Amino acid sequence: MPEGTVTFDVHVPQDRAWAFLSDMRKVGSCVPGVESIEVIDERRAKWVLKVKIGPLSQRISVDTETLEQTPPSRARFKGVADNLEMLGTIELAPAGDSTHITYTMVATAKGPLARVIDNMMKSRLKQQSEEFAANVTKGLEG
After folding, report:
1. Can you give the pLDDT at residue 19?
2. Residue among 93, 105, 128 nearest 9 (CA)
3. Which of 4, 28, 48, 80 sits 20 to 30 Å CA-CA off 40?
4. What is the CATH number for 92?
């Protein structure tokens, strides 16, 4: 089961970082490959992602749901697509004038191509987590 974890600091107070990360549109725009976000309600959204696998690219629809929120310090969420389920956490802690963020994503492939998808995700999940962190930092620090 592939996992990606990244820890980083943003130079904004924790309440501002929480407001950004708990907004489905804002956090979704930081996820690599997300092309569109349709908010269904305060806990659920549908994201369309463009995913590259080698020379091929494909669009996948991901149903996302916030499973837990403990403002302003922790959130758990999941995303479900046809052949993939993702579970993630975002943890925030004050660090002086900054906020320390830990983002973890675990992906589980399903179906006949599960082994192939798992192998691909192992190499890409860390890179995608780092890209997410860079996008969040840019979104918050502008």
Report:
1. 97
2. 93
3. 4
4. 3.30.530.20
Residue 127 forms part of a structural domain: yes
Domain for residue 59, yes or no? no
The pair phi, psi for residue 118, each rounded to 5°, is: -60, -45
Question: Is there a cis peptide before residue 72, judged by omega within 30 degrees of 0?
Answer: yes
pTM: 0.91
How far is the C-alpha of 60 from the C-alpha of 48, rounded, in Å? 6
pLDDT tens sequence across 66-102: 999 999 999 999 999 998 899 999 999 999 999 999 9
135 falls within a domain: yes
- Report if residue 38 sits inside a domain: no
> Can you list the residues of the chain whose pLDDT is less than 70?
53-54
Domain count, the chain: 1
Q: Which of 37, 15, 25, 27 is nearest to 92 (CA)?
A: 15
